[in-house]
Specification:
The complex is a heterodimer of chains A (about 250) and B (about 260). Chain A is of the alpha/beta class and about 250 residues long. Chain A has helices at about 40-50, 70-75, 95-105, 110-125, 140-150, 170-185, 200-205, 230-235, 240-254; strands at about 1-10, 15-25, 30-35, 55-60, 65, 80-85, 160, 190-195, 205-210, 215-220. The chains are: A alpha/beta (about 250), B mainly alpha (about 260). The structure holds adenosine-5'-triphosphate (ATP) and magnesium ion (MG). Magnesium ion binds near residues 40, 41, 85, 162 and 194 of chain A.
Chain lengths: ~250, ~260
């Protein structure tokens, strides 16, 4: 369970986040949606402590992140899996070694066990023949999936995904979404996902926070989102013709 | 409530004293404090140490050998053209070529060259990892990225570069020998007598220590600039330029100080 209270964050005088509070429960996929530049990535990085908030509190369970010393923070981070927006795979390691990297540091597994675990994670994200390929030899979508495999290698308690399915075809994208939901429920992980993919919202949006220009503008589930009475949110969801037509259908059948 | 935890990077981003010289000195030492932590796992460190030794030291052998052989030859020509007096024995040419190589060329000049080669390699590699969030990814896993990435580089260059210096001295002397042999500018016998004349072992130690210190300067400063690179690929370019300029300047200053202390 992650709780954030009144987070404010600014860059050189320009405010990026205004007074954001939210609660994220384990076993649930919590989505953060919003237009490009609305502050999703900044929010995620603030929650995990890669950026420092100007004010506000972040609780992991009952521990206040800001009160931890470096060592305790390190221990907490071993329970966090993170997929970065640009994947952030290590250039010096191939796909398999990327997944093995955290295992090398934080487990005492034998070489075979590590390989087995890496292959299991890679298979889990639907990658089978790329184990020996380096990040520069992988497509963007493949890199994302290796990133997810690396994030789940250590069985994290908290999983953060920054746009896990941007740049993926609809089919793979749905597979990734389902995968994230499966592991979230299976291992009771607290999962926070940044996205602007409406498919994901429909598929896995147990809980959705909508960020508009740095403000939390709406909060609810994917069942409520289509009937929300929030202009900015409606403009965001129904930006495409397809979504508008779909809306016509649902409203018609209601 | 005011948050207490400040990541070093955020601090630097926010700080308005960014260009302040003393500010950089302070942060350089804070950075070294992060680097010189006990490695999480020694096995990983040893593996990286040898990787870096290969990439940074072994890979520099051809360049240093090439330069040394030519400089050795040039030193012989220049000294002999400056020693026209018939009263001075010709063997002094070999002696002076040897002394120049040992005292200055094979440590200071070689390290200035390495500052360009190794320095740009290190700072652009680490800088790219910074801007593509690979360093953040490491930190997120709970790995001390500064120690993991930088310590093997500093250790391998500081410990092994003196071997490059030794090689440079030997190759330089061979260069001079080949020149003497081919052009007959002086007698080979004289050159060899000169090489053996008044040899001080201490100078070799002195030059090896200088190289160690310079290598530490190169690897730590270029790592520092790479580690705190920001602003995309332009930022990486900027930081590697800065790294080379600052490292070279520091080498010159350290050279002066070490020479004053040790000779
Ligand atoms: N390191 C930084 N320095 C200064 N400003 C920043 C920095 N990072 C983000 N910002 C600003 O914060 C705001 C929010 O950016 P953020 O990256 O969170 O957007 P986002 O919602 O993730 O967008 P996208 O969907 O395109 O990834 C933007 O206006 C951006 O300019
Ligand atoms: Mg983003």
């Amino acid at each position: 369970m992650i709780t954030i209270k009144n987070i404010n964050k600014s860059f050189e005088g320009k405010q990026a986040l205004y007074d954001i509070s939210a609660t994220y429960k384990p076993g649930e996929c919590s989505l953060v949606i919003g237009a490009s530049g609305s502050g999703k990535t900044v929010l995620l990085k603030t929650i995990i402590g890669l950026m420092e908030a100007d004010s506000g509190e972040i609780f992991y369970g009952n521990t206040l992140l800001n009160s931890l010393n470096a060592k305790e923070k390190k221990r907490l981070r071993r329970e966090i899996g993170m997929l970065f927006q640009g994947s952030a795979l290590f250039d010096f390691a191939n796909a398999q070694e990327n997944v093995i990297f955290p295992l090398n540091f934080f487990t005492n597994m034998s070489k075979e066990e590590k390989l087995e675990r890496a292959n299991f994670c890679l298979e889990r994200v639907g990658l089978t023949n790329v184990n020996k390929k380096y990040p520069s030899e992988l497509s963007g979508g493949m890199q994302k999936r290796v990133g997810i495999a690396r994030a789940i290698a250590l069985n994290p308690k908290y999983l953060f995904c920054d746009e896990p399915n941007s740049g993926l075809d609809p089919h793979t994208s749905i597979k990734i979404d389902n995968l994230i939901r499966e592991i979230t429920q299976e291992y009771n992980i607290t999962t926070i996902i940044n996205t602007h993919d409406m498919n994901s919202v429909m598929e896995i949006g147990d809980k959705i926070v909508f960020i508009h220009q740095g403000h939390k503008s709406w909060e609810g589930s994917n069942k409520e989102i289509f009937h929300a009475d929030n202009q900015a949110l409606n403009d965001f969801i129904f930006a495409s013709k397809m979504a508008q037509q779909l809306k016509g259908c649902t409203v018609g059948t209601r | 409530m005011e948050l207490k935890f400040v990541t070093l990077r955020d601090f630097i981003n926010r700080n308005t004293l960014k260009s302040n010289f003393f500010y950089h000195i302070g942060h350089y030492f804070l950075f070294l404090g992060q680097v010189f932590r006990k490695p999480e796992k020694w096995r990983i460190f040893v593996k990286n140490f040898f990787n870096e030794a290969d990439k940074l030291v072994i890979n520099s052998i051809p360049l240093i050998a090439l330069i040394s052989i030519f400089i050795g030859a040039v030193l012989v020509i220049q000294t002999s053209s400056n020693m026209t007096s018939p009263l001075l024995p010709k063997m002094y040419i070999g002696y002076m070529a040897r002394e120049s190589l040992i005292l200055e060329f094979s440590s200071t000049m070689v390290c200035l060259i390495l500052a360009g080669k190794i320095g740009s390699n290190i700072s652009s590699e680490i800088g790219t990892m910074r801007i593509t969030e690979q360093i953040d990814a490491m930190e997120m896993m709970g790995v001390n990225s500064a120690s993991y990435l930088v310590l093997p580089k500093i250790c391998s260059t500081t410990l092994l570069n003196p071997l490059l210096t030794l090689m440079s001295i030997i190759v330089g002397i061979i260069g001079g020998y080949l020149l003497v042999q081919i052009t007959g500018i002086i007698m080979v016998k004289d050159y060899i007598t000169g090489l053996r004349f008044a040899f001080t072992e201490y100078y070799v130690l002195y030059t090896a220590i200088k190289t160690s210190v310079f290598s530490f300067i190169i690897s730590s400063i270029s790592s520092y600039y790479g580690y705190y690179a920001n602003g995309g690929s332009l930022g990486v370019g900027r930081s590697s330029t800065k790294a080379i300029v600052v490292a070279s300047a520091m080498i010159l200053i350290a050279n002066l100080i070490l020479t004053k202390i040790m000779l």
